[in-house]
């Protein structure tokens, strides 16, 4: 699974962090998404898919 | 623009079915199945589109051709009072919305909210102590649901302890049902003046709180003092009445579903509590009038075209009951359901800024209240509970409880 993010779209709700905290984090200064792992292991796939689904700004793209 | 309304166009809003205070009006649930994007008539004769399906609501709320600017022609106004003048960036489109919102997102980041959990737990525990040592029956709204968010916002903004009582009295007066318009206006003005003055104090003496962060933005030239104060007021308004109503409404709903309440009371697993909160947010709806938008370009949706300049009402309480999104008995409260994809906080770039704080507060509240007062129950029949059918934010005006 290949993950890409668009920080310009992100609105910092942090739902991706709730869904997959080993893959997504938030910048200290403004809460904008930071990608920790652009090729997460299979056991993270469900959480990452969940993160992409609930992201209100459609800022997470997946290629499986 | 045509405002001619044929007799077949239903009025909006309408009452819930008698005896069903937790369910959306049946007429809108039926529209979701039969005509998921269809016209309704508002108080002023205007006829915006009512959008009732989950997928359509998500698509439109995330569509840059849809505006939240209440000054645009065609925007669906739900009352003659206008409203929205004090809502700041909530009623602005990008890029201005994004610029202002990004100045206040940091304190609402998941990790920073999680770090506030012990503080919120203490606030809730102290209030429960007060309930247990006070008279009963007691109105849970006044004694618990309203003070929880005010005290939390006080801490978040950085209101000194010595000012808590002033802050709480005025915050409550703004939304108290029995307050006159003069009292509300005066309380709102008191809060605005107070927060403006407090921002000034934070400029001189910054602490670890949101108003100090806003003060730092003033120094950096990102915000004026006035804008910073408006954002402080906005955070208070947006976080107070919403959370308070969700606390009280959720408590009523859990009391009406004793098996669900028992599951929640018996667990000490934070994951179970978090799942329950998501389901309560899905099932209940304090934003019972939905979300208002206006199309700025022609948009094809659900087999028809919404034209530029036409209003849109996204009724998320009906979207959250859509079996396409929640296939298992969507009209049933099931706190074990995975409901995390609900749109109770909206969707798109305007989705609730304070949602992580709201989630955490509700997790602490529901788990603590019912664990510490296991026999908590209504002191009057459900039919005597005054639900806020006519208010901007749904909930209960009063909730007399005993134990």
Give the biggest sheet of chain B: 5 strands, mixed
Spatial sequence of strands, sheet with the most strands of chain A: 1-4
Most extensive protein-chain contact, per-chain counts: A-B, 22 and 24 residues
CATH class of chain B: Mainly Alpha
Order of helices and strands of chain B: HEEHEHHHEHHHHHHHHEEEEHHEE
Mean pLDDT figure of chain A: 96
Rg calculated over all Cα atoms of chain B: 21 Å
The CATH topology of chain B comes to Cytochrome p450
SS class of chain A: alpha+beta
Strand % of chain B is: 5-15%
When the domains of chain B are counted, the total is: 1
| Category from helices, strands and their pairing of chain B | alpha+beta
Question: Strand tally of chain B, please?
Answer: 10
CATH architecture annotation of chain B: Orthogonal Bundle
CATH domain class of chain A? Alpha Beta
Low-confidence stretches of chain B: none
- Order of helices and strands of chain A, N to C? EHEEHE
Name the quaternary structure: heterodimer
Helix tally of chain B equals 15
Number of structural domains of chain A: 1
């Amino acid at each position: 699974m290949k993950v890409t993010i668009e920080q310009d779209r992100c609105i910092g709700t942090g739902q991706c962090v709730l869904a997959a905290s080993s893959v997504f984090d938030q910048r200290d200064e403004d809460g904008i998404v930071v990608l920790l792992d652009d090729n997460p292991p299979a056991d993270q796939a469900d959480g990452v898919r969940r993160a992409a689904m609930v992201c209100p700004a459609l800022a997470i793209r997946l290629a499986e | 623009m045509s405002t001619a309304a044929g007799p077949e166009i239903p009025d909006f809003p309408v009452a819930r079915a008698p005896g069903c205070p937790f369910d959306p009006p049946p007429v809108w649930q039926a529209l979701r199945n039969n005509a998921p994007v269809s016209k309704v008539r508002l108080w002023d004769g205007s006829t915006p589109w009512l959008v009732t399906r989950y997928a359509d609501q998500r698509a439109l709320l995330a569509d840059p051709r849809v505006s939240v600017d209440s000054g645009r022609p065609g925007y669906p106004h739900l009352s003659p009072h206008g409203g929205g003048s004090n809502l700041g960036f909530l009623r602005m489109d990008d890029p201005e919305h994004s610029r202002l919102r990004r100045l206040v997102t940091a304190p609402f980041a998941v990790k920073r909210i999680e770090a506030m959990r012990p503080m919120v737990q203490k606030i809730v525990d102290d209030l429960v102590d007060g309930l247990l040592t006070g008279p009963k029956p007691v109105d849970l709204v006044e004694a618990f649901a309203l003070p929880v968010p005010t005290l939390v916002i006080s801490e978040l903004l950085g209101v000194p302890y010595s000012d808590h009582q002033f802050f709480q009295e005025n915050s409550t007066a703004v939304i108290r049902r029995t307050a006159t318009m003069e009292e509300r206006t005066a309380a709102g003005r008191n809060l605005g003046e107070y927060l403006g003055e407090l921002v000034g104090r934070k400029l001189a003496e910054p602490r670890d709180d949101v108003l100090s962060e806003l003060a730092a933005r003033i120094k950096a030239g990102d915000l004026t003092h006035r804008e910073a104060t408006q954002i402080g007021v906005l955070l208070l308004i947006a976080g107070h009445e919403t959370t308070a109503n969700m606390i009280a409404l959720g408590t009523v709903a859990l009391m009406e579903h004793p098996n669900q309440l028992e599951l929640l009371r018996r667990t000490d697993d934070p994951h179970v509590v978090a799942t329950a909160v998501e389901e309560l947010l899905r099932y209940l709806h304090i934003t019972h009038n939905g979300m208002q938008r206006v199309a700025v370009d022609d948009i094809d949706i659900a087999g028809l075209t919404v034209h530029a300049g036409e209003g849109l009402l996204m009724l998320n309480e009906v979207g959250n009951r859509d079996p396409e999104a929640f296939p298992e008995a969507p009209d049933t409260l099931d706190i074990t359901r995975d409901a995390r994809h609900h749109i109770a906080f909206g969707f798109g770039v305007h989705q609730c800024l304070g949602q992580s704080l709201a989630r955490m507060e509700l997790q602490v509240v529901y788990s603590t209240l019912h664990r510490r007062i296991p026999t908590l129950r209504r002191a009057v029949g459900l039919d005597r509970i005054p639900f806020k059918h006519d208010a901007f934010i749904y909930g209960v005006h009063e909730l007399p409880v005993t134990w």
